[in-house]
Amino acid sequence: MLITGATLADGRVRDVRIGDDGRIAAVAEGLGADAGERVLEARGRHLLPGAVDAHVHFREPGGDHKETWTSGSESAAAGGVTTVVDQPNTSPPTVDGAAFDEKAALAAESLVDYGINGGVTEEWDPESLFERPLFALGEVFLADSTGDMGIDADLFADALDAAAARDVPVTVHAEDATLFDESALDGDLGGVGTAATADAWSAYRTADAEVAAVERALAAAADRDARVHVAHTSTPEAVDAVAEARESGSTATCEVTPHHLYLSRERARSLGTFGRMNPPLRSEERREALFARLAEGAVDVVATDHAPHTVGEKRRGLVDAPSGVPGVETLYPLLLESARNGELSLERVRDVVAANPAEIFGLDRKGRVAEGRDADLVLVDTADPREIEAAALHSACAWTPFEGLRGVFPEVTLVRGEVVYERDPATGAASFGEPVGRNVRER
């Protein structure tokens, strides 16, 4: 394929040739089409690297009524995500070689490339797990969430030692359950839409609980020279703690989610239990400060923590509703809308969704539009935003917390040169390609 006249994130207008090996063969001006080459005219549109979503829960095995590798990867492709990293809290949890193999067989149905993380519980088998092409260790849960995989400090230290010995990064879900405010859950919390119900979960899993756990995780990692990536930091204080650790010589990095960047406790009043996630939504003041950290460069990665549950499950009362929201399809669109509005630069968006996660996790063929890289590419018209509607999205859970917000959605998504998603901007008609996804840790 030859893509002509595309504007890159840095503003350069270039032609991009994709070779038979699925890698970018040339990025230059004035390239002419070779015989038999498909030409994709991209004048007036932006060509961006496919996003690397370092944090998804595609729910297979054990939860295919919520999401499957097919539906999840279609949602990813339609949103411009070309690599996903699946977390271990499935059923069975991915804590040994056999569970990894079971998940890997299901992941063969993915339209996009993928990594598979290994989990840590009292029953984990690190020897068989590390024999597999593991993406990272984690999400290691320092407090219970979906899957009840919370572990204590001693087991966390053992996991850090095991990972450091093999130079495997560790992704950490950092909350300190001893600092949760149990009194916030007192009273009548059965409804799904009341302001009290919506706010209670945020009051329960306090911001202090996150900050304290992040600081302890960073200290434990530094003692063992382990590489730690802090998942879904929801507070500016946690982002600052990671930055301070890095200034002291740590290799620590952090991610934030779109729901913590674009939603707050004020928005949760309309979401009710559909706005329950771990860590929870924070105050509008903290949300604004978190977004400022993103804009100024303190945030390393934006990843979704795509965690789908069915509408029926989310309609249970606050105590019984599962935590998590979908987001893989709206990651790029929301950030591109912020770039369109001047809140972020397009280069900053490119870095936090593609270039940075590729570099942090050692994906040397991903994350940039450059010669020799995989042709994981997304074509978008930044002048054509549209309202986010659940009915137009592709996750099996069939809802979104971002209903009514605006986003810039892809027209074409390619994985290693293969078209996996294409949308006609005039009619809105869309089609998907074949499942071409591969484990990015296998060569």
TrEMBL record:
Keywords: Hydrolase, Metal-binding, Pyrimidine biosynthesis, Zinc. It catalyses: (S)-dihydroorotate + H2O = N-carbamoyl-L-aspartate + H(+). GO terms for molecular function: allantoinase activity; dihydroorotase activity; zinc ion binding. Residues 47-399 form the Amidohydrolase-related domain. The keyword S-adenosyl-L-methionine does not apply. The keyword Metal-binding applies. Zn(2+) 1 binds at residues 55, 57, 139, 305. The active site is at 305. Its cofactor is Zn(2+). Pathway: Pyrimidine metabolism; UMP biosynthesis via de novo pathway; (S)-dihydroorotate from bicarbonate: step 3/3. Belongs to the metallo-dependent hydrolases superfamily. DHOase family. Class I DHOase subfamily. Catalyzes the reversible cyclization of carbamoyl aspartate to dihydroorotate. This is Dihydroorotase. It comes from Halorubrum distributum JCM 10247.
